[in-house]
Design goal:
Blueprint (H helix, E strand, L loop, with lengths): L6 H22 L12 H9 L8 H22 L11 E5 L8 E5 L5 E6 H4 L5 H16 L2 H23 L6 H17 L2 H18 L4 H4 L23 H20 L12
Parallel strand pairs: 1-3
Antiparallel strand pairs: 2-3
Helix pairs in contact: 1-6, 2-10, 3-5, 5-8, 6-7, 8-10
Length: 275
């Protein structure tokens, strides 16, 4: 395999990146107005410094689910009032397999209903019910903000764009295998182009869900300070999660906005992008 990128394909990749940016402006960006949070500062430092506590149990998980699930469903129905009945019917599942790595994720069942899974090993890293609530709310936010279909759309566009550019480049890149390879790369880049923005949006929206369920999102965000789970970010297009300091700062900003709305007697809710 060549260790360099030929000029024609390099231009194709650059064109792909530019067109993927257009995709974001056309509807694959964030739904909610997520502020740019600066890592560090007094708020982020205090959150990281107070991450002690006892490990959580399966009973703690069940108690948190009983509070977060109805709030997430209510929030979802507020945001998607015309969606099918099952669209906001969350199923929150505990993966008791000790071999499963620390993880929580949102997926969909065969009928398209939202499913949230938390593994036993991740629960073992939790040190408060606020952390459980924040993680579950974060995953619910992925569904409410339609991140799975948006990523799928980005993958399709990325594949079509880079595949088309490879065909236009001619030569060895215009072969059936060359075009397929280019489409695979385009789908890979497209699926990750906005993943960090989606994670931050889920943190922001998840903070509102957790707060409405009666939990403290700033305490919940302490999960980001756990050494085994801390994220350092990485290359913008390839890393799927932002750095932990940035996420801690963002949740602190969300908590401040939630308190501001509560002081005005409002039910906390995030603002939409562009408003």
């Amino acid at each position: 395999m060549p260790t360099f990128m030929p000029r024609r394909l390099s231009r194709a990749v650059s064109g792909c990146s530019a067109l993927l940016l257009c995709i974001a402006l056309a509807g694959c960006g964030t739904t909610y107005a997520v502020p740019v949070a600066s890592p560090g500062g007094a708020q982020g430092t205090s959150v990281v410094a107070s991450s002690g506590g006892a490990a959580r149990s399966r009973g703690d998980f069940n108690r948190v689910v009983s509070r977060v699930e109805p709030v997430a469903e209510s929030f979802c129905r507020e945001e998607a009032p015309s969606a099918p009945a099952g669209y906001c019917d969350f199923k929150i599942v505990y993966d008791a397999d000790a071999a499963s790595p620390p993880n929580a994720y949102q997926t969909r069942d065969k009928n398209g209903g939202p499913v949230i899974v938390m593994t036993a090993s991740l629960l073992g890293e939790m040190r408060s019910n606020d952390e459980i609530a924040f993680v579950l709310s974060h995953e619910a936010a992925h569904h409410i903000a339609r991140h799975i279909p948006k990523q799928q759309q980005s993958q399709v566009f990325g594949a079509l764009v880079l595949g088309g550019l490879a065909a236009a480049a001619g030569g060895q890149y215009a072969t059936e295998q060359g075009i397929q390879d280019a489409m695979d790369i385009g789908a890979f880049v497209g699926g990750r182009a906005y993943s960090q923005n989606y994670e931050l949006e889920a943190d922001w929206l998840g903070a509102f869900i957790a707060a409405r369920a009666g939990y403290d999102p700033e305490k919940g965000a302490q999960i980001f300070s756990r050494p085994a789970l801390r994220s350092g970010g990485g290359p913008v297009l390839l890393a799927t999660h932002p750095g932990s300091p940035q996420r801690l700062a963002l949740v602190s900003s969300a908590a401040a906005e939630i308190r501001r709305q509560q002081a005005q007697g409002l039910v906390p809710r995030p603002a939409y992008a562009g408003r």
